[in-house]
Amino acid sequence: xxxxxxxxxxxNPASIERGEPAAEAARLMAQGDMGEVVVLDNGTVVGVxxxxxxAVRLVAEEKxxxxxxxxxxxxxxxxTVPPDMPLTQAAGMMRLHSVHRLPVLEKGRAxxxxxxxxxxxxxxxxxxxxxxxxxxxxx
Length: 139
Prior knowledge:
This protein has 139 residues and is of the alpha+beta class. It is built from 6 helices and 6 strands; from the N terminus they run H-E-E-H-E-E-H-H-E-E-H-H. The strands form 2 sheets. Strands 1-6-5 form a 3-stranded antiparallel β-sheet. A 3-stranded mixed β-sheet has the order 2-3-4. The longest helix has 11 residues, at 22-32.
């Protein structure tokens, strides 16, 4: 059986509406020990805000933590995958689009997130990236 995105994705990702403050996205990340939150526009997935977005586009630019999440998202086109996509194809999508995380959508709704770390764990549990990705958070 070919492993699919469903086999390794993080289920039920946290989400936030695009007009909500970046500080709320950071709180969700801290509470869930995660590095990303799915961004919605009236319930429709429009992007992913990451811990890096907060560091680079909010903190480094000395913006107010109340800045809407929409203002710190990457300009990059949103790339998503379905849950039944083979892992090799999802890895190819990450490589092609130079992204580390992909929202997993089913009928337009975010049902998961797959990360580079998830792929590393699946491919070789003993690799350094897998080791780091599987480690308990230190928050």
